[in-house]
UniProtKB/TrEMBL annotation:
Highest taxon above the source species: Bacteria
Domain spans labelled XdhC- CoxI: 15-74
Protein name: Xanthine dehydrogenase accessory factor
Domain XdhC Rossmann residues, every copy: 170-311
Gene3D superfamilies: NAD(P)-binding Rossmann-like Domain
PANTHER family named among the record's database cross-references: ALDEHYDE OXIDOREDUCTASE MOLYBDENUM COFACTOR ASSEMBLY PROTEIN, MOLYBDENUM COFACTOR INSERTION CHAPERONE PAOD
InterPro entries from the UniProt entry: MoCofactor_Util/Proc (IPR052698), XdhC_CoxI (IPR003777), XdhC_Rossmann_dom (IPR027051)
């Protein structure tokens, strides 16, 4: 499953190329509770078809009604961007299904430039980060490559959104847990690859849409060229495989590097990496293990839920309290049982 941003942009490009009128809506600012974060996008075709989301559904319904009804007015899709606000009053918030006190401000772009959408998607497909700036005064769009993903910004005059290629996951080890985690990662818009040199594991892989890499994990990690939109998760339970992958992964800019295992195995792994591979306590701070957030998971499916939740939190730059970490939570639970 492709990331929702890319899906929205591709849909807008394809519809405009077919001669349809398209509205591109972006969440610019929010106050109070909001169903969707700033930067969320939605493409609306003139016949009412929608891809993406800017709320829980009611705002989309209103936009569909307003801009499909206005389709007969040809000029409606040939004007500068418009700033609209939903949920100013409690009555309106209730009407549009917003949480109590929630307000959402949207920027509406009418028929974005096909040429610029084609260029933008071409650069994203090539793996580039692109800074997209929209001027509200006249709708002028500027695209520029960037090395650092900026936070979404809207100052009342310009909207700046850093867009990038879809998030990627590289899983080391093709066991049952990897299959559950791959399924969840695909569902959350990641492109997924799995590496395992053990033919008996790789031959039984059953999840479609995953790129299978047969080779040594350290080579696979380096060939993968991990970037800030990459997570690397070691699940083989074989130290020879997981350690090789981790050594290469910790040299990369991947936003998440983690490995499965017990607290004892995690401590032994850290000691090996320090003693034999030149790491230190400081350099291993990036290494997550035992991975996942503590939910008392036992089965591969439950563990995958736990791990995917931690990956999404890291992706969204959400701080998780220490109490949610598996090692800390299990230790506290054991202390309570002994007291």
């Amino acid at each position: 499953m492709e990331s929702i941003d890319l899906l929205v942009l591709r849909s807008a490009r394809d519809w405009i190329a077919q001669g349809d009128n398209v509205l591109l809506a972006t969440v610019a600012r929010t106050w109070g509770s909001s169903p969707r974060p700033v930067g969320s996008m939605m493409a609306l075709r003139n016949d009412g078809r929608v891809v993406g989301s800017v709320s829980g559904g009611c705002i989309e319904d209103d936009l569909i009604h307003r801009f499909t009804q206005a389709y007969g007015e040809q000029g409606i899709y040939a004007k500068p961007p418009q700033l609209v606000r939903y949920g100013v009053s409690a009555v309106e918030a209730h009407r549009f299904g917003l949480p109590c006190g929630g307000t959402v401000e949207l920027i509406l772009e009418f028929c974005p430039s096909l040429t610029l959408l084609v260029r933008l998607l071409s650069e994203l497909d090539a793996g580039s980060l692109v800074r997209r700036q929209v001027a509200l005064s006249d709708g002028a769009v500027e695209l520029a490559p960037t090395a650092i993903p900026e936070r979404f910004c809207f100052d009342g005059k310009y909207m700046v959104n850093t867009l990038g290629p879809g998030f990627r996951a590289l899983l080391i080890g093709a066991g049952a847990l990897a299959e559950y985690l791959a399924t969840m990662a695909l569902f959350n818009g990641f492109s997924v690859s799995v590496c395992d040199p053990r033919s008996e594991y790789m031959s039984g892989w059953s999840v479609d849409g995953v790129d299978k890499i047969v080779g040594m994990p350290d080579d696979a990690v380096r060939d993968f060229a991990p970037d800030m939109r990459t997570c690397i998760v070691c699940l083989s339970h074989d130290p020879k495989l997981d350690d090789l992958a981790l050594i290469a992964a910790l040299e990369s800019s991947a936003f998440y590097v983690g490995t499965i295992g017990s607290r004892r195995n995690d401590q032994s792994r850290r000691e090996r990496l320090i003693e034999h591979f030149g790491h230190s306590e400081t350099s291993l701070q990036r290494l997550r293990g035992p991975i996942g957030i503590y939910i008392g998971s036992k089965t591969p499916a439950e563990i995958a839920v736990s791990v995917m939740a931690e990956i999404i939190a890291a992706k969204n730059d959400v701080f998780l309290p220490n109490e949610s970490q598996v090692a800390i939570a299990k230790g506290e639970r054991e202390r309570r049982l002994l007291s």
